[in-house]
Write a structure and sequence with these properties.
With 179 residues, the chain is of the alpha/beta class. The protein is built from six helices and eight strands, in the order αββααβαβββαβαβ. It has a six-stranded mixed beta sheet with strand order 5-4-3-6-7-8, sandwiched between helices. Strands 1-2 form a two-stranded antiparallel sheet. Strand 3 (63-67), helix 4 (71-84) and strand 4 form a beta-alpha-beta unit. Helix 1 (3-15) packs across helix 3 (44-55) and helix 3 (44-55) crosses helix 4. The two termini are 27 Å apart.
């Protein structure tokens, strides 16, 4: 199998949890895709980085990140996958609110001002988390080249409506799930 197929196997075996859950969007579902079980897994995390770098190979960006917490391990996996290929790729973390002490930064890590950045998320249903990150990045002076997620639960239309290219490594259909 290839990286894409291997990662799909990890997702279906480790991350898909069946049972009633309330999503961050407020919607109810009969199953949940807990991608932290994959993005923080010793064997799956490197695949996350490689698959998302392949997914966005034709986009030009030099930093990657998104709204904490879902985006953090995705960005770090991409940073390490990039380093393995001699690609200079920084990661950043967008806080949900500006820090009230220290340097009072909303975006942590290397500065994003004037840089081409990729906004990422593990999974997205409405797009609200990743679009919150995009707004903070644009306010900070970054150029957001697009949005990429591991699993799309339906956010594509909202992200594209905001004027951004959107890609997902997997759809719900790819995972054998129905919305």
């Amino acid at each position: 199998m290839d990286d894409h197929g291997d990662l799909r196997k990890f997702i279906t075996e480790l991350a898909v949890v069946h049972g009633k859950v309330v999503l961050s969007s407020g919607r109810e579902a009969d199953w949940y895709v807990d991608l932290r079980r994959v993005t923080l897994h010793h064997a799956a995390a490197p695949l996350v980085g490689r698959v998302l770098l392949d997914l966005t190979a034709d986009w030009q960006f030099d930093a990657v990140g998104g709204l904490t917490l879902g985006a953090d391990p995705v960005a770090v996996s991409m940073l390490h996958a990039g380093a393995a290929k001699q690609r200079r790729l920084d990661a950043f973390v967008v806080r949900k609110a500006e820090k009230t002490h220290g340097l009072q930064r909303r975006i942590e890590g290397p500065d994003v001002v004037g840089r081409r950045v990729l906004a990422v998320e593990d999974t997205s249903t409405t797009g609200s988390s990743v679009l919150t990150a995009v707004e903070a990045l644009q306010e900070a002076g970054a150029e957001v080249v697009g949005v990429a997620v591991i699993v799309d639960r339906g956010a594509g239309d909202a992200v594209r409506a905001a004027g951004l290219p959107y890609r997902a490594a997997y759809t719900l259909a790819d995972l054998g799930l129905v919305a």
